Amino acid sequence: VENCGPVIENPARIVGGNEAVPHSYPWMAAIFIDDAWFCGGSIISEEWILTAAHCMDGARTAEVVLGAQNIDKYEASQVTVYSTDFTVHEYYNPSLITDDLALIHLSEPITFTTEIQPVCMPAYSTPGLEAGELVNPSGWGTTSDNDFYITDVLSEVIVPIMSNAECKSIYGVSVTDNTVCIDTTGGKGICAGDAGGALEYVENGISYIRGISSYGSSAGCETGYPNGFSRVSNY
């Protein structure tokens, strides 16, 4: 997709988790599924949203809100599109949480605006990021293990990549070559409601989606255990 992955100057980005500058992640989609649960997703073209398989597995309907900063109120930038057309990866394993990605085909093409833009996709087999390189997960998920509800506003955090070897020593067979992990030391990472959202990496001034938010530790979001993402460049 041409003109994908615009980088919005964002001096407020602070490691540790904070509200994102409005519309600095214009590809982020808020997905309300079967009026029962919530996930994030990423715009990859005028008709397709990329998200996690465990979000869409068995789903019937999806309300996809685009161009949002605050999902609890109407904003002029928001566009809502519905879908009943989902494709879950054929090898998705809900027990191991592997190949955890899905596509949502929107019922009508969207028109890109300043606040609604696609993220860039890395080329197939793009080399993985090295441990320690910084990436940006974002989402409307809970900000604490004590929270019961997702947040109204889009949040972000800057975290380092963790090596797959170190991540595999914690999660075992759930970590494969198709997984990318982040170091959440200090409780900085994804939490409930962030599933399906993008792991962004900026390269040469362009934002690429390098992972799809998949899982964290059952011990909690703030315990410092790594988070796992589906490695987009392997698909």
From TrEMBL:
It comes from the Eukaryota. Keywords: Disulfide bond, Hydrolase, Protease, Secreted, Serine protease, Signal, Zymogen. The keyword Disulfide bond applies. One of its GO terms (biological process) is proteolysis. GO terms for cellular component: extracellular region. InterPro entries: Peptidase_S1_PA, Peptidase_S1_PA_chymotrypsin, Peptidase_S1A, Trypsin_dom, TRYPSIN_HIS. GO terms for molecular function: serine-type endopeptidase activity. It holds the Pfam family Trypsin. PROSITE patterns: TRYPSIN_DOM, TRYPSIN_HIS. It is found in: Secreted. Residues 14-235 form the Peptidase S1 domain. The keyword Protease applies. SMART domains: Tryp_SPc (SM00020). This is Brachyurin-like. It comes from Hirondellea gigas.
